[in-house]
Design goal:
The protein has 7 helices and 5 strands, in the order βββββααααααα. It has 213 residues and is α+β, with helices and mostly antiparallel strands. It folds into 2 domains: 2-79, Nucleic acid-binding proteins (OB fold (Dihydrolipoamide Acetyltransferase, E2P)); 84-212, de novo design (two linked rop proteins) (Up-down Bundle), CATH 1.20.1440. It has a 5-stranded mixed beta barrel with strand order 1-2-3-5-4. A hairpin with a 5-residue loop joins strand 1 (2-15) and strand 2 (21-27). Helix 3 (131-144) packs parallel to helix 6. The longest helix is centred in the C-terminal third of the chain and has 19 residues, at 179-197. The chain is elongated.
């Protein structure tokens, strides 16, 4: 086994025994990968309070030579993004962002660009968001993964998506969309996602329910 160190964001955790977790991370140097966190569910575990959804950590893991499940050796909490749990709306938005990354990426396909994009959007979501920010993130993620949409300039939804795709994170945070604009943008963007990525994120339904509520 080889010892590796990297910054990583928690995409998912899954209990596998009464005491251990499998953690899916998106890492700066290695892309999406899974580690076994042995004993992480024990009250006195050294991992206690360091592994949860959206957490930004520095991790040290032992790379397995026989499988894609590696062994978590050490973990240092850098940022918990705690305020993302302060409201159902922010929790739903952040959950959608991390699931988009999990669905759109292949195991251990390094992309520092996607890592920075996810890190930055989670930071932005802690300060609130409009629907434009999530649409911006989805556009940027598609482009980073190699599926940049080709947008026409003949209809309003395409023009809106083109404008968002060309702006910065700070610019996207300032954009406010009405309900009709959000629906039109999603009706154009989501079928493109489903066609090229091949899998719709399950948390998309939560976004729709929040919009309707």
């Amino acid at each position: 086994m080889t010892l590796e160190r990297t910054e990583a964001i928690v995409l998912r955790t899954h209990p596998v025994t009464e005491t251990s977790l499998v953690v899916t991370w998106f890492t700066r140097e290695f892309g999406k990968l899974k580690t076994m966190a042995k004993g992480a569910r024990r009250p006195k575990s050294p991992f206690r309070g360091k592994i949860d959804l959206f957490y930004l950590d520095e991790i040290v893991f032992l790379r397995s030579r026989r499988s894609d499940l590696h062994l978590l050796h050490d973990c240092f909490l850098e940022k918990p993004h705690a305020t993302l749990r302060d409201s159902v709306r922010s929790l739903a938005a952040a959950s959608y962002a991390v699931e988009l990354v999990e669905v759109a990426t292949e195991p251990e396909d390094a992309s520092p660009r996607i890592f920075r994009l996810l890190r930055d959007v989670l930071d932005a979501l802690e300060h609130g968001h409009g629907e434009a920010l999530l649409i911006w993130f989805e556009l940027k993620l598609l482009a980073a993964a190699g599926w940049k949409p080709k947008l026409s300039t003949t209809d309003s939804a395409s023009k809106l998506l083109g404008s968002l795709a060309g702006t910065s994170l700070a610019g996207a945070q300032r954009v406010r969309l009405n309900a009709a604009q959000v629906i039109a943008a999603r009706e154009l963007l989501w079928p493109f996602w489903d066609l090229h990525v091949g899998r719709a994120p399950r948390s998309r339904n939560v976004l729709i329910q929040k919009a309707e509520g």
